[in-house]
């Protein structure tokens, strides 16, 4: 009886009724929704973040799409020219500005950022710092960055001549 049921299950798994494996980009988006990300470590994918939230089905689908995920991550890696760059990144979801790398403090001051002694970090001009309220929580929507504001602003390299 059990062997008949297992045989039926195996036939079902091989048939078209089996759940399709989604596109690797959809799997990465699903991981992102769970608070996880996939990075390449020595050419192998590694999951970082809230791994406890990942379901066994999602792990199975990721294993099945492993080669596609690796190709997507390799294509998305920054070029070596920008690998050690630093600057300001705009989060499109919140409209907040974030620093990446270690930009020159003088350049940050020129961009309107100010050092906060209490937080021990540079802060973006109000209301664009990550700790400021989002526009939907402000009366009248609050000020917003212009639509053409760049997603990434790189700080000038120290060896570049201005």
Question: How does the SSE layout of this entry go?
Answer:
Layout lengths: L1 H13 L9 H10 L2 E6 L2 E6 L6 H9 L1 H11 L10 E4 L6 E4 L4 H6 L3 E3 L4 E3 L28 E3 L8
Antiparallel strand pairs: 1-2, 3-4, 3-7, 5-6
Could you describe the 3D structure shown?
The structure is a single chain. Strand 3 and strand 4 (97-100) form a beta hairpin. With 162 residues, this protein is α+β, with helices and mostly antiparallel strands. The strands form three sheets. A three-stranded antiparallel β-sheet has the order 4-3-7, with no helix packed on it. A two-stranded antiparallel sheet has the order 1-2. Helices cover 30% and strands 18% of the residues. The chain contains five helices and seven strands.
Please give the radius of gyration in angstroms: 23 Å
Low-confidence stretches: none
Determine the fraction of residues in helical runs and give it as a percent range: 25-40%
Mean pLDDT: 78
The biggest beta sheet, please? 3 strands, antiparallel
Please tag this protein with its features:
two-stranded antiparallel ribbon, 5 helices, 162 residues, 18% strand
Quick recap of the structure?
With 162 residues, the chain is an alpha+beta fold.
């Amino acid at each position: 009886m059990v062997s008949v049921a297992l045989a039926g299950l195996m036939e079902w798994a091989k048939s078209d009724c089996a759940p399709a494996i989604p596109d690797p980009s959809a799997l990465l988006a699903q991981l992102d929704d769970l608070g996880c990300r996939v990075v390449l470590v020595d050419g192998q994918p590694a999951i970082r973040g809230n791994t406890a939230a990942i379901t066994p089905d999602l792990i199975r689908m990721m294993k099945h799409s492993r080669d596609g995920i690796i190709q997507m991550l390799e294509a998305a890696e920054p070029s070596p020219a920008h690998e050690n760059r630093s600057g300001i990144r705009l989060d499109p979801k919140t409209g907040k500005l974030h620093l990446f790398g270690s930009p020159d403090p003088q350049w940050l001051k020129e961009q309107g950022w100010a050092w906060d002694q209490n937080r021990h970090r540079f802060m973006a001009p109000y209301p664009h710092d990550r700790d400021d309220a989002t526009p939907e929580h402000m009366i009248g929507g609050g000020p917003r960055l212009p639509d053409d504001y760049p997603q990434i602003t790189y700080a000038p390299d120290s060896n570049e001549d201005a």
